[in-house]
Amino acid sequence: MLATTKKLTKAEFWSLADASDLTYELIDGIAVPKMSPKYFHARSARRLLNILEPWAIDRGRAEMEWAFELSDRFTPVPDLLYVSFARLAESWNENTACPVPPELAIEIISSGQTFGQMTQKAGDYLTGGVLQVWVVDPEAKSVTVFYPDRAPITYMNDTVITDELFPGLSVVVDRLF
After folding, report:
1. How far, in Å, CA of 47 to CA of 45, rounded?
2. CA torsion sign, 108 to 113 to 116 to 121?
């Protein structure tokens, strides 16, 4: 299915998304279906989740394909996200989009997507309050980390990604591919 061409309200978007078997994102008021993941994408997502989930267990939530609302016109669905219990209480338990921007949003480039598109999306995430965005490129076997206050950094090979924002988390880039 192609993206809608009509600008949607948030209520119209959720009606469409809730009635469909497809996953949609609301980008600049337009409902855009998510790309269907292929093997490299799925493998990288699973490996990332296997690293994030045990690390996050007492800190927050690490989830796949969970929408969050950044504005009335932008409801993205990152491939993975991490939101701490400090931002979203551990007691929160609703079957809705994440009500706050996560600390970390991860996008994995799929066939038909470009690094430039993901760079734009990373900028939108950061503008909306996400603290860090990782763009994973399974073809290039790289992870580019975007920050709100400095230039992005690209990691490859056996480089280990660590950050004081996520104490105790370390990701060896090669292990994602």
Report:
1. 6
2. negative
